[in-house]
Amino acid sequence: MSLNSKDLLGIRELTVEEINLILDTATPMKDILKRKIKKVPTLRGRTIVTFFYEPSTRTRSSFDLAAKYLSADTIAISPSTSSVVKGESLKDTALTIEAMGANIIIIRHSAAGSPHLLAKTVRASVINAGDGTHEHPTQALLDMYTIREKKGTLKGLKVAILGDILHSRVARSNIWGLTKMGAEVRVTGPATLMPAEIEKLGVKVYMSVEEALEGVDVINVLRIQLERQQQGLFPSIREYARLFGLNKQRLALARPDALVLHPGPMNRGVEIAPEIADGTQSVIVEQVTNGVAIRMALLYLLSGEEDSNEITG
Ligand code: CP
């Protein structure tokens, strides 16, 4: 089996079978990460380009490492030091990169739909590494992988997403993915940070954080995206922590074996208490490792290597 598209633009476009294929392929990739020498020749001769118009630590580094562990060649284009500052368009920049031999272009952009536009322009595969407030598909895939690894399944789980739902591409991709995979998804946070008609995505909306967390198997905590905020959408940071932050008392409302996820970057003491972030129920560090495995799986699948090369070379 292979993916239906040359690109990975969003979770919304993926079938259940495709999501399972990506998650299943990430397991042998994770085995490679456990080795002392984390390098296999699987994508030797392929060229992978990261193109990030917005800041990133986890996503950019993990794509870069994923490509290197599979022996692909990588380059990173930074808008601030490229001809983008001279006014070159996204389309012309992408065509230029492709003309040099890029096989996969990974893009993060503040404008929703940018990766989709790019995918129509180039023959190379395009991976969406986050487009505005729209989607962050690889984050949702690594979140689903982490939950499935710990719980054995996604079907029937109760998952609460807590925080700034309005500005969160992570929330949207998680909602599309988890509901497709048969989980019950609840969203909660300040009313001013709750998108209108979010119920249409098949989630339950809770205005009370406490009610939302009652009996859940998973809590996915989101940061407040101050860089995308208008003033006055939420109380002060201190009030936000008091009213919506995940603390010991609120975590106790979930199942005793509930997992705590956070996509990062974290604001400790705001949306999550430090002792929860570092506590026994937290899988935040594992999410980061799984992010590399998921991105290795995607690079492998989008390279069309599944019929020719063994993953381990
Ligand atoms: N989760 C996430 O996208 O983190 P970065 O912004 O650091 O890539």
From TrEMBL:
Sequence ranges assigned to domain Aspartate/ornithine carbamoyltransferase Asp/Orn-binding in this UniProt record: 155-302
UniProt-listed Enzyme Commission number(s): 2.1.3.2
Domain Aspartate/ornithine carbamoyltransferase carbamoyl-P binding: 6-149
UniProtKB keywords: Pyrimidine biosynthesis, Transferase
Gene Ontology CC terms: cytosol
Free-text function comment from the UniProt entry: Catalyzes the condensation of carbamoyl phosphate and aspartate to form carbamoyl aspartate and inorganic phosphate, the committed step in the de novo pyrimidine nucleotide biosynthesis pathway.
Matching PANTHER family: ASPARTATE CARBAMOYLTRANSFERASE, ORNITHINE CARBAMOYLTRANSFERASE, MITOCHONDRIAL
Binding partners and assembly: Heterododecamer (2C3:3R2) of six catalytic PyrB chains organized as two trimers (C3), and six regulatory PyrI chains organized as three dimers (R2).
Cited HAMAP family: Asp_carb_tr (MF_00001)
UniProt family annotation: Belongs to the aspartate/ornithine carbamoyltransferase superfamily. ATCase family.
Protein name stated in the entry: Aspartate carbamoyltransferase
